[in-house]
Write a structure and sequence with these properties.
Length: 175
């Protein structure tokens, strides 16, 4: 993602945050608060799109998908599921997520190898990947990190821990 696109996304988020905190705030006050021109604020508000962070879930357990989606949407994330019929790289390129949640055994394949492919791709190497392991073994965490994953979470998951881990990975990716 280019610097200008990233700057606009961050600006949009700041504008939305101000509007949510103070629904009656004027464009002039937003511009003053953010130290940008009023014209820029007007344009960004007119073109405002969904700036929630997008999380792409890649796994084949529908019960887990539903639980993940419920917990993460409650935190105001935009959660999408990958289609079984398209490749992982195609899904990531199509959705352009801020985070990928990847099962260690996605579609009966090696999720660790998929993670390596994502991290080796020039189109998506910077997107954080969080592996999900149903076995909850230390070996899976070690394999996940060696394959390039940014974090690993056990399934079944603790909702509070999941929210904290997702938030931490996303904050780290913005630095």
């Amino acid at each position: 993602m280019r610097w200008r696109e990233m700057h606009n996304i961050n600006l949009d988020r700041e504008i939305l945050k101000l509007i949510e905190e103070q629904p009656e705030i004027s464009e002039r006050d937003i511009a003053r608060t953010l130290s940008v021109s009023e014209e820029l604020v007007k344009v960004r508000i007119e073109n405002l799109h969904d700036v929630r962070e997008k999380i792409l879930i890649m796994g084949d357990e529908q019960n887990i998908h539903h639980a993940l989606k419920k917990v993460l949407e409650a935190e105001n994330y935009n959660v999408v599921n990958a289609s079984d019929s398209i490749s992982v790289l195609e899904a990531v390129n199509a959705e352009r997520p801020d985070l990928v949640l990847l099962d260690t055994a996605f579609l009966n394949t090696d999720g660790f190898e998929i993670c390596r492919q994502l991290k080796a791709s020039p189109r998506c190497w910077w997107i954080p990947v969080m592996m999900m392991s149903e076995r909850n073994k230390a070996e899976d965490s070690v394999k996940a990190f060696k394959s390039g994953a940014d974090d690993c979470v056990a399934v079944p998951f603790n909702p509070l821990e999941l929210k904290a881990r997702v938030g931490m990975v996303l904050r780290r990716s913005r630095i």
